[in-house]
Write a structure and sequence with these properties.
Elements (H helix, E strand, L loop, with lengths): L2 H11 L15 E10 L24 H14 L1 E4 L5 E5 L6 E4 L1 H10 L1 H17 L6 E4 L11 H19 L6 E2 L7 H9 L4 E4 L4 E6 L11 E2 L11 E4 L13 E6 L2 H9 L6 H9 L9 E9 L10 H15 L3 E2 L2 H7 L4 E5 L31 H26 L3 H7 L1 H5 L3 H11 L6 H19 L4 H4 L6 H21 L4 H8 L12 H9 L6 H11 L8 E4 L2 E13 L2 E12 L5 E12 L2 E8 L3 H16 L3 H11 L4 E2 L6 H11 L1 H17 L1 H9 L6 H28 L7 H16 L7 H20 L7 H17 L6 H18 L13 H15 L4 H4 L1
Parallel strand pairs: 1-4, 1-12, 1-13, 4-5, 5-6, 7-11, 10-14
Antiparallel strand pairs: 2-3, 8-9, 8-14, 10-11, 15-16, 16-17, 17-18, 18-19, 19-20
């Protein structure tokens, strides 16, 4: 029985009552709803279904990872600190925030950090429990398309995909939906109403007029013009669809609308309102009406990334506000669905014709040179030609889709709407069931591939309208390039099915889009330089496989990005400095099911020189003859002869290291240069040893140390630190239940002392990460060990590791370690302490372990005062 289980069983045997059910939350008096719009655009390479390395996001792999580290994860584990900077509470902000998380981001979170993903789902469940079944999460249109600029079919697919994706995560239908850039018009409202959406959140600038809802006493109340943003945002409004005369018609369907408080929302996004909870609450309090109305809602909405990414550490402010500051003021933290259920609209509103929250010209920012998002002497005349080019492409793809898919599917557009089910689950069984439901007749293998290509063509035609492509000042930015990559993929898929090449005319139309960058000149050049080189063929996937196989062994069946690679044959031989691999490979796309059998040969000439050839597999005999000839040529140890033989037998395109995908190229480069770096490390260590006395003399006399000597010292000490940490980790892995060898401690202590005395900054990211993992793993074993009393030595080791890391100035990230410790502290300690003697045979040793654990809280930055006392 583990210690954790024992704690739970003690509580059960003592007959402790279950926690009291929380009282029903009433949305009366002053209510507060803070909405976060969490969103990242789709960044995946259209050919790999994966986000590639983005150097601008360093030290992270890409911008999703970076913003996750700064925002999404901190909000799932937001710290409330005392005046000593110690953690007193860890709050799941999503449990109190009203929020939407864009489908493309939510699906990325599910793959990248399952723990945070589960915290978000748990937060929605808890908010449902607290608020009469009304969860904090609302849906979002699928990939952030500006709906008023979309045709009716795309508009509805975006809404349906957004709803389906939401339900797949949260297990319920959404009550509300976030519109990209809050862009709205009445046709969009009608589509939302038809799809069962009950409410929206809009900016105060998007409403034209409002009035009290007609009733028996006042059948035709006066309208109040509020087009300048004078709408009262403390109440919900009913918005009816219009009749043929263009007037709101109470006999027609409606949707309810909340308008966020514009000034407060701007202050949160662009001023210092989140500097502390008192400041935030004070500003919110200024919006409270003193007219004794039964209920009023302080409604605030902003980009969710404000909380931690745009404004670092501000997730702590809202955590304290939700759990302490607002309750202390008798304010109810609620969400829109809950407030609406208890306070249905008493007013109605009429919206302006076409509007968005980030453009004062309607939705011109996403189709014209309106000035929004400009600055710095740039023009946005490219926006209209870009929009027109994509509209032209979309309409051509619609014609091809209806013609080709109409032969194979009963209703191509119903199939497209339901294709979201395939995007959520690309298993062979699920895709086959989807095809079976929609096929007009039994599809053969080639027809199945065509159907999947056509549906992917439509998916990319939707992705190419992602709003970020128009948002900024220049077409050639990553956002503009990305939507053109989706367009290019849609064009390629159309060509594969129909033989129709839409690319020349599309590029010709892009030439009408002027770039602000002289190098590009126009959109056609952006397409040629930024988009075309990023296209990936199956042959390039095979080349990637072949070259990387020299440095990492592949299993017979292995996933390579979104392809299944089946190794049918593989032979490798080294001769002097040359390495040759010859193989046969079957690649199958998980997305379109297309399959290609290829043969390859790759020659590594040493250093960064590779020569790789790919061609379709032409039969076993030809392959055997080719392999034999290549290995015979290799025996001559002549690189030239081997390359000539390769070129004779392979008439296809050749590939080199630069044809690898960025991350793999970087990994191979590091692996190849590892020996060189080891030699350099030895040289720096020698320079350091031989000049140690000189370095100390400079330090002793307070003279500036020559840069060359300082660099040598830092590199030498960093390398020693890394080797010592590696030894420490290996020792723990081999002898998990025995104390660590003291020589590693002595070495690390000595390194820390030397680094301080020589004013060296150690740059050892691998050591930092290894120590974080070691501390977490050791703490986990202590808290889950059968022999809790025997954990004292390990607790002391953890404390020593933390203190030693501080001396080494490695800058450990204790977040996950704190969370593990906090969950134990708040989940079990209070339950078992008074009764442990009855069930723990070696109770005498337990207080020592417990005391050490509670003291460890100090080193981890967690307040354990209550437990220690």
């Amino acid at each position: 029985m583990t210690f954790t289980s024992k704690a739970n069983s003690i509580g059960a045997t003592e007959g402790q009552s279950a926690p009291a059910i929380a009282p029903r939350v009433t949305a009366k008096g002053v209510c507060v709803t803070l909405h976060g719009h969490f969103y990242q655009p789709p960044r995946e390479n259209p050919y790999l279904d994966a986000i590639e390395h983005q150097p601008s996001a360093r030290p992270f792999h890409d911008w999703n990872e970076r913003i996750h580290y700064e925002c999404y994860r901190p909000n799932a584990f937001a710290r409330v600190l005392n005046d000593r900077g110690e953690v007193v509470e860890i709050v799941n902000n999503y449990e109190y925030l009203s929020f939407n998380i864009g489908p493309t981001l939510m699906n990325w979170l599910a793959r990248y950090d399952l723990e945070v993903y589960e915290r978000i789902l748990e937060a929605d469940r808890r908010s449902c429990d607290r608020l009469d079944g009304h969860g904090n999460a609302i849906a979002q249109v699928y990939n952030h398309i500006i709906l008023p600029l979309a045709n009716d079919r795309d508009k509805r697919t975006q809404i349906r995909w957004g709803k389906a994706d939401f339900k797949s995560h949260f297990g319920r239908d959404p009550e509300g939906m976030w519109l990209a850039e809050t862009a709205v018009d009445y046709p969009t409202l009608e589509a939302l109403i038809d799809e069962g959406i009950k409410f929206l959140i809009l900016a105060p600038s998007q409403v034209e007029r409002c009035r009290v809802l007609p009733n028996e006493d006042t059948p035709d109340p006066d309208w109040h013009e509020v087009g300048g943003g004078q709408i009262d945002p403390t109440r919900p409004y009913r918005c009816y669809l219009k009749n043929a005369d263009g007037q709101p018609d109470s006999t027609r369907p409606y949707i309810d609308i909340f308008f966020y408080d514009g000034p407060i929302s701007r202050d949160i996004g662009f001023n210092d309102l989140l500097s502390n909870a008192n400041t935030l609450a004070g500003r919110l309090g200024m919006a409270v009406h003193g007219d004794r109305r039964p209920a009023q809602l302080i409604s605030v909405a902003t980009d969710g990334e404000t909380f931690g990414h745009h404004k670092g550490g501000t997730e702590k402010c809202i955590a304290y506000s939700f759990t302490q500051e607002f309750p202390n003021r008798d304010w109810t933290v609620t969400n829109y669905g809950h407030y609406l259920s208890q306070n249905p609209p008493q007013w109605e509103c009429e919206l302006k014709p076409v509007t968005a929250w980030s453009c004062s010209h309607g939705v011109e920012r996403w189709r014209d040179d309106c000035g929004c998002g400009g600055g710095g002497g740039t023009q946005q005349k490219w926006r209209r030609p870009l929009r027109d080019s994509l509209d032209w492409l979309r309409d051509r793809l619609v014609d091809l889709y209806e013609r080709e898919a109409g032969r194979l599917l009963r209703d191509p557009w119903v199939a497209r709407d339901e294709y979201i089910g395939v995007l959520k689950n690309r298993s062979k069984e699920n895709v086959a069931a989807f095809l079976s439901r929609h096929q007009r007749h039994a599809l053969n293998a080639e027809e199945q591939i065509d159907v999947l290509r056509l549906l992917e063509m439509q998916r990319h035609s939707l992705l190419m309208y992602t709003s970020c492509g128009w948002f900024f000042e220049e077409l050639s930015r990553p956002e503009g390039t990305q939507i053109l990559r989706y367009a290019a993929r849609a064009i390629e898929l159309a060509g594969q099915v129909t033989g129709c090449d839409l690319e020349p005319e599309f590029v010709q139309r892009l030439a009408q889009a002027p770039s602000n960058v002289p190098f590009f000149k126009d959109g056609a050049a952006v397409y040629v330089h930024n988009v075309k080189p990023a296209q990936v063929s199956l042959e390039q996937i095979a080349a990637h496989y072949a070259i990387s196989s020299l440095f990492q062994p592949y299993h017979p069946e292995q996933r390579v990005y979104c392809y299944q690679a089946r190794q049918l044959d593989y032979q490798l031989q080294r001769m002097g400095t040359l390495t040759l691999a010859v193989g046969q490979l079957q690649l199958t796309s998980e997305i379109t099911w297309e399959t290609l059998n290829l043969s390859f040969a790759v020659l590594h000439l040493g250093s960064l020189d590779f020569h790789c050839c790919i061609q379709p597999f032409a039969g076993r005999l030809e392959y055997r003859q080719k392999s034999q000839a290549l290995f015979e040529a290799l025996e001559s140890t002549s690189a030239a002869q081997t390359i000539l033989t390769m070129n004779h037998y392979f008439d296809g395109k050749t590939f080199g290291l630069s044809d690898l995908f960025a991350e793999e190229e970087e990994r191979v480069i590091h692996q190849i240069e590892r020996e060189t770096l080891k030699r350099l490390d030895r040289l720096y260590a020698q320079v350091y040893r031989e000049n140690y006395g000189v370095l100390k003399a400079f330090q002793r006399n307070d003279l500036p140390v020559p840069r060359e000597l300082q660099v040598a010292a830092e590199i030498a000490l960093s390398q020693r630190c890394l080797e010592a940490v590696r030894g420490l980790v290996q020792q723990v892995g081999r002898l998990a239940d025995r104390p660590l060898k003291k020589d590693y401690w002595v070495e690390l202590e000595a390194i820390a002392t030397e680094a301080v005395s020589l004013r060296c900054h150690l740059n050892v990211p691998e050591a930092k990460q290894s120590l974080e993992q070691l501390i977490w793993r050791t703490l986990w074993h202590v808290l889950h060990a059968d022999d809790f009393a025997g954990g004292l030595d390990r607790v002391l080791e953890i404390d020593k590791l933390v203190r030693l890391s501080d001396k080494l100035q490695l800058g450990l990230s204790l977040d996950r370690i704190q969370e593990l410790y906090y969950n134990w502290l708040h989940g079990h300690v209070g339950n078992w302490c008074p009764m442990l003697a009855a069930v723990e045979p070696d109770f005498a040793a337990v207080p020592d372990t417990l005391s050490a654990l509670l003291e460890l809280g100090n080193s981890l930055g967690i307040d354990t005062t209550v437990w220690r006392s």
